[in-house]
């Protein structure tokens, strides 16, 4: 018999605010960045550059606040990587979900993310996003490279890394949007990120490895 579902407060107001604002900024950065790159014309090159720069700085500030919040609230534990049940989660998303099998690591109040999510979010927050921000700042401050002793850098290389990072972020968004449809209803996860409340299975204990991420 399947466990009963409990309606619990899973995502805090700041967590939801940060999530949606970050998503909005990233989407604007992707659109304006592609226009600056010459992929299409929407608002004009100069305005696209101005909007892109403004949103880039806003994203950097938001990212700093989110990082501070994660570490000061202890939420960083929910992102600690682990290989426990990783293969089970991959099998679940590969074919188990289509057979109606239960999730091997269902979310709970103090264990919101499964092993695959933890690893993905860690790579995103500790590697991909910082690279985007650093290359973006370098691109932005190109005229100051000589003064800063960075004249040996290649603008083309910096631009290519920044562009590759943008496509990687865009790929993540596509997968992320798809994953939001895999809840008990197609809009369950999305609704949870709006209201903060989500249905989770009752009576599930959090294992030690989920608390420590080991």
Structure description:
The chain has 214 residues and is mostly helical. It has one domain: Transmembrane di-heme cytochromes, Chain C (Fumarate Reductase Cytochrome B subunit, Up-down Bundle). It contains seven helices and two strands; from the N terminus they run βααααααβα. The chain has helices at residues 13-37, 45-72, 86-94, 115-140, 155-179, 188-195, 208-212, and strands at residues 5-9, 197-201. A two-stranded antiparallel sheet has the order 1-2. The protein is elongated and about 60 Å long. The mean pLDDT is 89.
User: Termini distance?
Assistant: 31 Å
What is the count of DSSP helices, taking H or I runs of 4+ residues?
7
Query: Radius of gyration from the CA trace?
Result: 20 Å
Fraction of residues in H or I helices: 55-70%
Keywords:
single chain; 214 residues; mainly alpha; two-stranded antiparallel ribbon; 5% strand; elongated
Give a brief outline of the structure:
The protein has helices at 13-37, 45-72, 86-94, 115-140, 155-179, 188-195, 208-212; strands at 5-9, 197-201.
């Amino acid at each position: 018999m399947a466990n009963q579902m409990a309606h619990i407060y899973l995502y805090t107001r700041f967590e939801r605010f940060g999530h949606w604002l970050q998503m909005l900024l990233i989407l604007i950065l992707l659109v304006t960045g592609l226009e600056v790159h010459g992929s299409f014309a929407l608002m004009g090159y100069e305005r696209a550059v101005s909007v892109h720069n403004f949103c880039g700085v806003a994203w950097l500030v938001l990212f700093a606040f989110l990082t501070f919040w994660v570490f000061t609230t202890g939420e960083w534990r929910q992102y600690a990587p682990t290989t426990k049940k990783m293969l089970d989660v991959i099998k679940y998303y590969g074919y188990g979900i289509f057979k109606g099998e239960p999730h091997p690591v269902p979310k709970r109040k103090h264990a919101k993310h499964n092993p695959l999510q933890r690893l993905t979010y860690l790579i995103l927050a500790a590697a991909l996003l910082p690279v985007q921000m650093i290359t973006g700042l370098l691109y932005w401050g190109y005229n100051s490279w000589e003064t800063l002793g960075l004249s040996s850098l290649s603008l083309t290389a910096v631009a290519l890394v920044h562009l590759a990072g943008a496509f990687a972020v865009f790929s993540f968004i596509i997968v992320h949007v798809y994953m939001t449809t895999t809840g008990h209803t197609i809009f369950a996860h999305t609704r949870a990120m709006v209201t903060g409340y989500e249905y989770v299975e009752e009576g599930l204990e959090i294992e030690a490895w989920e608390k420590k991420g080991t």
